[in-house]
């Protein structure tokens, strides 16, 4: 793994743990065992690092959603996978990178906000596509726009991830079970 990728990966972990605005290049330097100058060589400003983190996340999400959406599995399997995978990077008191950046939204540059907005749209489009599978299979028949339901699901999942930090991982499982029951009953 090259140094730039290593910096991004460790930064992602720090964002999940303490938030983007709360960590410093000194934290990264200590964690990686390198000088701050080495970090500045790759990312002159923290804003540059933040954008790199978001772009890396965007690329990973696009790849992940492609795998989920183009799998041969049906609606319930796609929904289950999305729900269970949503929490994987958030174990041990960590949060979703998107949630962490949302918490720091007012401190982000316009470029970083634009990246965050694109990521948000990717999530809604993926959830909409999953719900459309359920609609085509006749498993669900929601009232209103399916995109509105996708926005509701995304918001509920993100909230459950945040509350799991306080209430424990079982809280997330409870919420996802209720989501499945609610979705399948519409």
Question: How would you characterize the overall build of this protein?
Answer:
It is a single chain. With about 190 residues, this protein is mostly helical. The protein has helices at about 5-20, 25-30, 35-40, 45-70, 75-85, 95-105, 110-135, 145-165, 170-185. It is elongated and about 55 Å long. The mean pLDDT is about 95.
TL;DR of this structure?
The chain has about 190 residues and is mainly α.
Layout: helices, strands, pairs:
Layout: H1 3-18, H2 25-32, H3 36-42, H4 46-69, H5 75-87, H6 97-103, H7 110-137, H8 146-167, H9 169-184
Features:
single chain, about 190 residues, mainly alpha, elongated
Helix content percent band: over 70%
Shape: elongated
The class by helix and strand makeup works out as: mainly alpha
Radius of gyration: 18 Å
The helix/strand series, from N terminus to C terminus, equals HHHHHHHHH
Figure out the total of helices. Answer: 9
| Mean pLDDT value | 94
The fraction of residues assigned to DSSP E strands is under 5%
- Low-confidence segments: none
Terminus-to-terminus distance: 46 Å
Largest sheet: none
């Amino acid at each position: 793994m090259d140094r730039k990728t290593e910096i991004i990966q460790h930064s992602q972990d720090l964002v999940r743990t303490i938030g983007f605005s709360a960590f410093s290049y000194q934290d990264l330097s200590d964690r990686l065992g390198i000088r701050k100058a080495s970090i500045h060589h790759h990312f002159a400003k923290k804003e540059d690092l933040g954008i790199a983190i978001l772009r890396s996340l965007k690329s990973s999400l696009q790849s992940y959603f492609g795998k989920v959406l183009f799998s041969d599995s049906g609606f319930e399997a796609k929904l289950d996978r999305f729900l269970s995978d949503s929490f994987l990077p958030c174990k041990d008191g960590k949060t979703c990178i998107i949630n962490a950046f949302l918490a720091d939204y007012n401190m982000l540059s316009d470029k970083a906000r634009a990246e965050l907005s694109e990521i948000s749209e990717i999530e809604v489009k993926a959830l909409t596509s999953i719900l459309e599978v359920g609609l085509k299979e006749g498993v669900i028949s929601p009232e209103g726009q399916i995109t509105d339901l996708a926005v509701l699901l995304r918001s509920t999942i993100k909230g459950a991830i945040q509350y799991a930090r306080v209430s424990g991982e079982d809280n997330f499982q409870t919420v996802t079970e209720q989501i499945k029951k609610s979705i399948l009953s519409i």
